[in-house]
Specification:
It is built from four helices and no strands. It is mainly alpha-helical. α1 packs across α3. The longest helix has 36 residues. It starts with a helix and ends with a helix.
Length: 110
Amino acid sequence: LSDHVRQIDFFTTIAAREKKARGERSSLFRLALHPFGKFLRMYFLKAGFLDGTAGFVVAVTGAYYVFLKYAKLRELDRAERHLSDLAQLDYGYRDVSDRLDKIASLRDSG
C-alpha cells in the first residue's frame, strides 16, 4: 500500500501539470466532489463492495488519487496567480537609489 501511495503522489503531480498545460483549472467544487464521485463509481457502480475490504480500499485510493490531482492543480493555480500578482506590482521606483531617496524624503518630512 505504501508503494501505491508513493506512485499516486508521483502520477498526480504529472496529471496536475498536464491539466495545467492544457489550461484546465481547479475549483473547490472539483476538489470536493470529484473524489466523492470517483469513490461512488468504484465502490457501487463497479461493484467494489463485493470485494469487501479490498474493494473499499481500492475505491478510497482511487478517490484519493482524484483529490490529490485536483489539490495539486489548485496549488499550481494559486502559485501562478501569486507570481502574476508579484510581477504586476509597480511601486514607481526605477532602482534601489530611487527607493532610498523616497525613504529619506519621507523621514525628513516627518
